[in-house]
Amino acid sequence: MPDEPIEDVLGLRDQRLIAALQCDGRLTAERAAEVLGLNVRVVHRRLAALLGSGTVRVSARAGGTAFPPGMLLRIKVLRGKAETVARALAERDDVPYVDLSAGGDEIGAVLLADPGAPNRLVFRQLPATGSVLSVDAQTVLHVFEGGTAADWRLDVLTPAERAALTPALPRVPAGAPDGTDRGILAALAEDGRATAAVVARRTGGAESTVRRRLASLRERGLLLTEVHVDARRLGLYVDANLGMRVPPGELDALGRRLAGHPAVHGVLATTGAANLHVAVWLPGLADLYAFLTRDIGGLGIPSVDTFLVGRAVKRPTGPAW
């Protein structure tokens, strides 16, 4: 079964601050307080606590970059062997996601790999492992806009608040980041809220130059931030991956529609019989049942395979779809 409820679920005020960071990971406490109607000293204190304790982490990545090619893996294993195989997969740099099923006999994973070339892990290493019963590998064809972990938004802000906190669209052509820009982006990868002074120390550049380049990167849409937080701390205890068989003519429209659902944090089109994959976070199993019967049931999808995550063994520490 999914993880049992935990007592230290974050309160609504903290959740609203996290949602504000999802809109803009470099948001100042002053701006957050102004939009959310909070005391600025309280916001300073709570952001420091959330970020300083590691409860919330903000990473950064370059905007305008394509998602890396990859494959979705479903690996069936002998009962009692799943932990061993999952740990081995988690040690690989090209495997950013590893999930154990609630039943304990199946592993779901994402492999970053060129689909045009035979992959050693898929074609040799996993099949040769005695505890592996079968491997299903499907190539990711399309990642839907708004349907990634980086795009997911905690649904605790009003539309007006979200609009006020979200940076404006780029006002100038993006262009390509130069060497200085790339150095700044690399320095922000693990801490997307690092100050210009900190980035200057990490890159060896002048603080004034870094501050100017940061403003330019944001104006051009080349600096994107992503918030990392354990969904259970938000009261979302059910993590499920749904594989759907969708008629080709309806695939794009359904993918776009589901990408906008507040429970959805991933939507991918893939090869294979199940050609649309949707990842959801929900408070409980009753909510998952309602999502399947109400939200999915009314779309005319003939088949849905539900992979209930028992434990997330590995999730990306940096940006990834």
What labels describe this entry?
8-stranded antiparallel β-barrel, Alpha-Beta Plaits, alpha+beta, Arc Repressor Mutant, subunit A, 321 residues, 2 domains, 11 helices, single chain, two-stranded antiparallel ribbon
Write the SSE topology.
Blueprint: H1 12-23, H2 29-36, H3 40-52, E1 56-62, E2 70-77, H4 82-90, E3 97-101, E4 106-112, H5 120-125, E5 132-143, H6 159-165, H7 179-188, H8 196-203, H9 207-219, E6 223-229, E7 238-245, H10 248-259, E8 264-270, E9 276-282, H11 285-296, E10 303-314
Antiparallel strand pairs: 1-6, 2-4, 2-5, 3-4, 3-10, 5-8, 7-9, 7-10, 8-9
What features would you describe in this structure?
The structure is a single chain. With about 325 residues, this protein is an alpha+beta fold. It has 2 domains: about 10-65 and about 150-230, Arc Repressor Mutant, subunit A, CATH 1.10.10; about 70-145 and about 235-315, Alpha-Beta Plaits (2-Layer Sandwich). The chain contains 11 helices and 10 strands. It has helices spanning about 10-25, 30-35, 40-50, 80-90, 120-125, 160-165, 180-190, 195-205, 205-220, 250-260, 285-295, and strands at about 55-60, 70-75, 95-100, 105-110, 130-145, 225-230, 240-245, 265-270, 275-280, 305-315. The strands form 2 sheets. It has an 8-stranded antiparallel β-barrel. Helix 2 (about 30-35) crosses helix 3. The longest helix has 13 residues, at about 40-50. The chain is globular and about 55 Å long. The two termini are about 25 Å apart. The relative contact order is 0.19. The model has no long low-confidence stretch (mean pLDDT about 90).
